[in-house]
Design brief:
Number of helices: 2
Order of helices and strands: HH
Radius of gyration: 17 Å
Strand content: under 5%
Helix content: over 70%
Length: 70
């Protein structure tokens, strides 16, 4: 359980870092390549945050069940 919690926290933190880098590089969005990389960074950051949140929700839902079985 602790591994999944660490993984979900790491995914959320990496997603935030990608979001910050996307905002940093978005100021120079003049070419097609910069718009593409900005979109890729946005998609990756949202996806990682979403997966991390889903993992945390699953851990919260399954936690009482695992505790009762022990």
């Amino acid at each position: 359980m602790l591994k999944k919690l660490k993984l979900s926290a790491a995914l959320i933190i990496i997603g935030e870092l990608l979001s910050w880098t996307q905002n940093y590089f978005a100021s120079d969005a003049t070419s097609n390549f910069s718009e593409f990389t900005s979109g890729v960074l946005l998609g990756l950051s949202v996806g990682m945050k979403l997966i991390g949140i889903i993992l945390i929700i699953l851990l919260i839902v399954k936690y009482p069940k695992e505790e009762k079985n022990s």
